[in-house]
Amino acid sequence: MKHQKLTVDSQTLAAHWGLSDRRVRQLVDEGIAVKVPGGFDLVESDRRLIERFRRDDETKALKRRRLQQEMLVAERRLQRQEREWLTITEVQAVLTGAWESIWNSQAAVAGHIFHHLGGMAEGEKRALMFELDSMIKGELRLLQAEFEATAKRAMEKLSCELRNGIFVKTREIGMLKAEIGMTDDEAED
Prior knowledge:
Elements: E1 7-8, H1 10-17, H2 21-29, E2 35-36, E3 39-41, H3 42-84, H4 88-115, H5 122-180, H6 184-188
Helix pairs in contact: 1-2, 3-5, 4-5
């Protein structure tokens, strides 16, 4: 369908669109404002500008859907990670169980050694066992403190990594929202 040509100068086109002359020149470079002898083809330029707006709206809609999908995936990933992580209480229960097992094993070893010291006088056996027991318990306490400190650092590091992962994903989502001009209310819809 052939349209009627209405030719206008750059100031008239700029005023018609509510843009600056510089922006009109940029739209010429982008193929939106159509130059013809004597100025610009107003009808064809308007048609191309409307088509551009339509494409931009479609692009924003696609980006909005992509953002909503990414937000859903991030939320599901976070929920899955939270289910996989042990709580501090669960870690403490495991550590306490391990510590009790080590402590009980130490007591059993000490009893076994005591019975194999047959030729010693009872007082010497008890003194040797007390010294051995003190050394073992001292080493176990050091081991326990080191084990607990390591476990605490590991939990802090994992917690920090989780927070950093959430922060990075939140920033990515924020940038996508800004790119398409979406508000938080729109993202929740």
